[in-house]
Amino acid sequence: xxxxxxxxxxxxxxxxxxxxxxxxxxxxxxxxxxxxxxxxxxxxxxxxxxxxxxxxxxxxxxxxxxxxxxxxxxxxxxxxxxxxxxxxxxxxxxxxxxxxxxxxxxxxxxxxxxxxxxxxxxxxxxxxxxxxxxxxxxxxxxxxxxxxxxxxxxxxxxxxxxxxxxxxxxxxxxxxxxxxxxxxxxxxxxxxxxxxxxxxxxxxxxxxxxxxxxxxxxxxx
Length: 221
Prior knowledge:
Keywords: Membrane, Transmembrane, Transmembrane helix. This protein is an all-alpha fold. Helix content is 73%, strand content 0%. The protein has a domain at 1-43 and 55-165. It contains 7 helices and no strands.
């Protein structure tokens, strides 16, 4: 029963982990598209700009978050497959830090009216386009964001449950096979122990002593 429950929880963790990975891959693909647009308009890649005021930080941030989500997904798949305690602890730590980062950004946007001034100017214009898309599709983006947060929280909860159940046993106890080995040992005949040394010739020595004694008695007569 426990093994069946463990397998189900591992499957659920893999499923929600794949959803997080899909979000990360989508962010990476979007970043690649932004890099392609930057290269077409500026004539070079955005990674070789030395001017800090001309750095497209939004592309860097989006690409970094996508790569981070992809790495967390790979690590979470390993943790779900092995159910190792250390892997699950690290996976839960990564998810917790990600949730704290998202909560901090959300709190800053909601509570701070001048939150746009906290971010530097993006020369690529991608940040302004992203803000315009979110504002024009606020309901859709809100539900997408809530779904992503829900999936991350669910993955944290499932990983915690899997950690409480524990990994698969690496070996079976001897009691499981005691009943199978017992009938084989009933008819086993153990060989007698071997003695190292001179062979015992007790019967021959006694007969020889009796003969010598008889001859001596006959000679004395």
